[in-house]
Each structure stands twice: as C-alpha cells, then as structure tokens.
Write the structure tokens for this entry.
Amino acid sequence: MEKQYDPKGIENKWHDAWTENKLFVADEKTTKPVYSVVIPPPNVTGILHMGHALNNTVQDIIVRHKRMSGCEVLWVVGTDHAGIATQNVVERQLAKEKLTRHDLGREKFVERVWEWKTQYHATITSQLKRLGTSVDWSRERFTMDEGLSAAVRKVFVSLYNDDLIYRGKYIINWCPRCRTALSDEEAEHKDSKGKLYHFKYPLADGSGHVTVATTRPETMLGDTAVAVNPTDDRYRYLIGSHIMLPLVNRKIPIIADDFVDKSFGTGAVKVTPAHDPNDYAIAQRHYLKPIIIMDEGATMTGPIPDKYKGLDRFACRKEIVADLTALGLVDTIEDHDHAVGQCYRCSTVVEPYYSDQWFVKMAPLAAKALAAAKKNTITFYPERYKKTYTDWMENIRDWCISRQIWWGHRIPVWYCDECKAVIVSETDPTICTHCDSTKLRQDNDVLDTWFSSWLWPFSTMGWPQHTDLYKKFYPTTSLTTAPEILFFWVARMLMAGIYCTKQLPFTDIVLHGTVRDKSGRKMSKSLGNSIDPLDVINVNGADALRFSLMMTTAQGADVYLSPDTFEIGRNFCNKLWNAARFVLGTIPEKVTITALPPVFRLDGADIWMLSRLSKTIAAVESALQTYRHNEAARLLYDCTWHDFCDWYVELKKADLYQTEDAEKQADARALCIHVLGTLQKMLHPFMPFIIEEIWSHLREKITYNNLIDAQFISCASFPKSNKDQINDAIEAEFTLVQNVITAIRTMRAENNIPPDKKGTAKIVTATPSDLASLTAHKARIEHFAKLTSATIGADLVRPSFCASSIVAGNQVFLELEGLIDKQVELERLAKEIARTQSLIESTQKRLESPAFTGKAPAEVVAKEEEKLCGLKSNLEKLNQSLAALH
C-alpha cells in the first residue's frame, strides 16, 4: 500500500473495474430475493449539486447494503427531459445567434434541442459515476425514449377515456417569461415586501363610494364586481347596487359572498375573475363573465383605455396609481408583506391567467393512494411526512398538465378542421375517425414534464409491455428523494402506479433534508453559497464527500455544510488507510487464516473488541434497515476510529511485533484482520472506493475463507452479529480502564507535561470489582498513560502536589512532583488567566455594542458569542488548575 491515500487514481480505477465486470447489472433470471429502486431522474440540463450528492449517496448506501445482504438489486438510472428548463437553455443559445425558436419553426427547434441533449447529456451521468453510484448503466433511460413516450401516450388516452382528463378555461399559474402554464406546485410562493392600496370606487348613483383594498392595482381594469361579506353590517344596505369602475367607467355590481374576509382591508374586495383564482371562484358562483386584460407576456391588452395598452403590468400599476391619485380616489397606501408566486425555473412573478388548458382530475386518483398511507401500506421515513402527505391528498386540486412550449411530449390530441371532432389517440391519426377528412391539426401544447416522471417506476422497466424486467423487479421497494418533490413526484407516482399497474410502485418513502449553508440558507447559485461536489471530490475524494454527508445528516433533517465539513470524511479516510497499512505491514508474506483463536487464548482486550464489533454489526444493520444512515455512519466511525484504531491496534502492537511466541503473533494477526475486514464490509456502502482498494490489498496478503469471500468487496457478504461474542461485563471493565487512561492523559495535557516525561499515579477505587478490574489492567494503564508506576487501592493517601480527576467514582491522582516546576506553572497559569480575562472583557464589550450587533451579519455575531462561551470555559478550567496547585 502507498504511504498516503490518494483518491484520484484509485476512484477511476475501481469504477472502471466495477463497470467492466458488470457488477451492478441486474439479472432478470435470478432466483435471489430482489430489491429495486429508481433514481429520481436529474434534469438533462443539470450538473451535480450537493442535493444530488446527498440523495444519490443515500440511495447508493441502500443498494450496496442490499447486494451484500444477498439481494439481486436493480437500480434504474436515467435523466428527465426537463421541458421548461431545457427549452430555456436552448432558447438562450439561439438568442446569442440573434434567433428565436419561431425563426426556426417547431420541427427544427425540437431537432436543435435533441442535438443539445445528445451533446450535454453525458455531463450529469459522468458526475454520478464520479460519486460512485452503483447504478445499472446498461438500463439507463430518458423520459423521452421511445418506450417511455409510448407509455405517456397510453396513460393520457386511458385517463381521457376514463373521463379523468378534460380541457377547459380555468385560472392557472402563468409565467410571462417562459410563456407557459405552471402547476400549483411549480409556482413557488416567497415572502415579498409590497403595498396594499386602498381605492375609492364611486357609487353609480353618486351617493358616495366604497373603498376596496388590493395589492395589484393594474388588475382593476378587469374588475367585474365588488364583493362584501353578507354578514357585514357596514355594507349590507349596498348589496345589489352598483359602482362605476374608475378609469374604465364600467358599471359593475356590489355582490355578497361568504368568501370575503371582513377583517381584511376594508372588508370590500374587487373581483377580477380572469386574473385571480379566488375571484374566478366568486365569479362562477355569481355568473360574472371574466375580462382578460393581459396577454401571455403580461402586457396590458383587451377592453381597457388606450393609454394603458401595451404597458408592462408593473409599469401599468404605476400609471394607474398616479391617475387615481390625480382623481382623488386613493385613500391610503400601506406597506404590506405578502407571499408572491414565482416561476420555479426563472423566478418571474407568476400571473394568474384565464386560458384553455388540459387538466387531470386528481381526487379519484388520490383516493387509493391516500388510503395506502392511512392503512400504513406505505411507510414514510421520517414518519412525520405522513401527515404532510395526507393533508395535501385530502385537499388535492386538479392538475394542469398542458404547457405552452415545444420541447416535451406533445399532447396526443388532434382536431378535425372539417367536422371539428376531437381525436385522442396513442398513434398519429391520418384521417378523421368521424368524417374521414385528412385536415387534422395536433394540439400545440406539450405535457407537463412531471406527466412522464409520474410513470417512471414502471415505464423504465418496459411497461405497458410485461417485460421480464418488469415482471421480476416491479414494484420497486423504496424511493429516496427530497421533501420538496413529495407532491410534484412522489404522490403522483403512487397515484399513477395504482391506476396503471394496480400496485403501489414502492412502499418505503425515504425523505432526506435540504442542503443549507452554516447560516441556514438553502444552497443556491444565486446566493453564491453553493458548494460544488466535484470541487470537494477533486480535493478530498468521493468517499470523504459521501461519509461527511452521512455523518452530518440525520434522517429527514436539513444538513448544514461549509467547506471544512468535508474534513470529517477526509480525516477518517486517512485514519482508516493508515490503520489498514499498519496491520498489513506486520504481515511479511501471504498468510492463511482458518478461524479466530479459541476463546481460551483471548485476553480481555480481544473479548472487548469482539463484543464491541458484534454490537456494532447489530446496531448498524438495524439502522440501515430503517434508513437511519447518519446513525449507522456514527456507529462505524466510533468503532473504527476509537475502538479499533485508537485502542485495539495499539493494544496488539506488542503481540504483532514480537517474534518469540509465533502462536501469539498469529492470533494477533487473525484478530486484527478479522476486525479490519469486518469493518471494511460495513463501511463499503458508505465509502466504496477506498474500501475496495484496501480490500484488494487484503486479498493479496491473506486467505481467510470465512471473511474475505469475494474478489470485489461490492460482491462480498454483509457481516452478521455473533451474539456469543457479546460480553457486557468485559465491555464495562474495559470502558473503566479506558476512561482512567483518558483522565490521566487529559491531566497531562492540562498541565503541559512534556510527552517524554513519565509520571506516577494513584487510583483510589470505589468498589472491590473496580479494584480487581483496574489491577488486572495495571500494566496497560501504565503503558498508555505514560506512567512509571500506578498504585491502585481502596485506601490510598492523596499526594500533596498532584492533579486529580473522578472516573465513575474512582479518584485518579497524577503526581506532578518532578514533572513540572510548581512556581513556573503558577506564574504561567496566572498569565494565561489574565490574558483570557482580557479577551473575555473585549469580546463582551463588542457584543454589548449596538454598532457591532446591529451591523454585523448574524453569522459573525454568532461566532463571537461562541467564542465568548469558549473563553469562559477555558477560564474555568484554568482557575481549577490554579486551585489544584495551591
């Protein structure tokens, strides 16, 4: 093994080896139990971001563990055509050529997008490979593959024939920039600072006015009524009368509707049916005709005064406020914070828009998927997301599936120009099925990207054909994704799976948190706070990235990252590499290990290590079965770093190096290799590259049939806990010894005792069993605590000049005479106390200053507060050390 671990060459080498040996290609003819998952398909436009890294690491841990547990695993990989996002990218390229999609025409534009997809598709997939994902690349899919496209058409036609798809005019979310409809979930609402305008609407009879409140003055040009609550005594007498709409001079009624909130604004609201979903619902109840006053680009149009025509909606807002002010019809204008819908792709403010769209009736589809959650047929990890899911499903709204773009699955609907018939077909018709005319026009819209994605678990396996792959691996087992697409994707897949296949597409739903920076902000390019996973991989390696993410991400919780987070994984890789290199370095040539030494040849440290290992195996297996990957990572970290590297390897060094007793040396080798190899197997799902490399070196030097059981550790068996090796009494005894050694080491550090100086210690035991345990390990205590001698007893006198500590009721004294100069140490401590006190005072003064706390960023203030806590803790320890010397 190389002296230092360098991930660069190793990671490429092992990924190529796994691929060449087809380790992750699922066998459709297997007789083993199967486990299948589908990757949440990243956008073909995308590059790997930290959310992808987290999501795919979690999935990879799951599938690698299942392979090692004896399952035949299929992990389907693929990409999504990402309609709006991809079209935006290509249109931006065209703009650089001073062209638009309309200059090319639909057919040429779609060809251009396919060219772009072919060129850039490999970007995201190559990055997934660098992360170490063990997907079945031989079955990679794309949402616009021929087979998947056929599935999309079949489902559309089936839903249409079952009266679950319809077309009609409705208020939908509209992006004026992308010029397309958006679903409710695609219109992200973000808090915004705006204004609440109070306008006076004159009564038609000239007897006064009604004051209405609005956040969007420009929409008043499309008002068709003013609504009040029927129980509002302030306006009861006006119900049925009319007002004259300012600027437009249109006579509109005052109506009563229970929807109106008496406490909002003035209690009287304007009704603009074509530009507000709530107003549209009111209009439906009162038979008010919508008036459209904006075009698809949010430019003012329609039956409005000429002076406003052609203005952008926000420019029009300013003009209207100015004109109403000039007429004396502005009552008040207040600052008003409210949530404003924005396009999830380009952040343009969404406009509610009245237009013809295609919809899916969701309530009938949701019923069985909702029941599955209530009956616990599907399980959420963490469980709290079950309520989020059921609340949404119980209040589900119809899904707008049409998009006014050119890239995507074109809606399979044709219109006959002769007889006006509507033809819905899985195949392109050439003649009208009603009148035999050939004058057919296909609907211009394409389907929402999610319409193909909701079929992903089964369309990727060949459905609607019952292929061997589909029959063997569908339904899938688990689905891992982020909570923000619980409704976009997860809920819809459940509905589609039940509708299309009569089965749930998966039963375990694993939801991980959002990746944030240390200040709690969601990572994004626009904020400039994102960390590129490839940068982390280039510096630290993929294993360091993966393990760091798992160590810092509790199940379902958000993860807070900074560049130094990945030092956790990097340091762990180095520790593991050095330990493996040391153990293998004690073996001069290839050896054969047939079994562990018999129990009578094991000492206390061996029994302790095997007990800790068996407990760790059981706990890790339990954590992995319930998707608590953070807990599994911490268990492995502690057992590997602390139990094995820090303690056990150090304890066995003497036996490994000595040559007088061959049996003892062989036993030490067998035990170290057993523990190391077992840990490698458990760590492999988390950090596959470095473990495969260490495994290859183990195989070169060791034959161990019960442990080293595969050419690639990817194909090895996951360890099983041995209950017979668990020994709580020995663990408790050894833990006491460890804590005593740690206490003495701490006292040495606190008193600045040079490493080469050995001291003496007295340990006053609390119980006879502690006396027996510590006496049995006296030599180990002396060796690891760097003592010339340790006196252990129940009735020992405290030394006059010493440091002390309490360990589980046992008093531990480290004699300082001869180790340090008491007077020099007193002076050093006094100076350090004075310096620390000065730092505390200056830090407190800074934190008490409004000039600092009012202007400094929150994270800077938080760091100063953390610094102050640390200084106070240090001062307390310094004072304790000073008191101990007097």
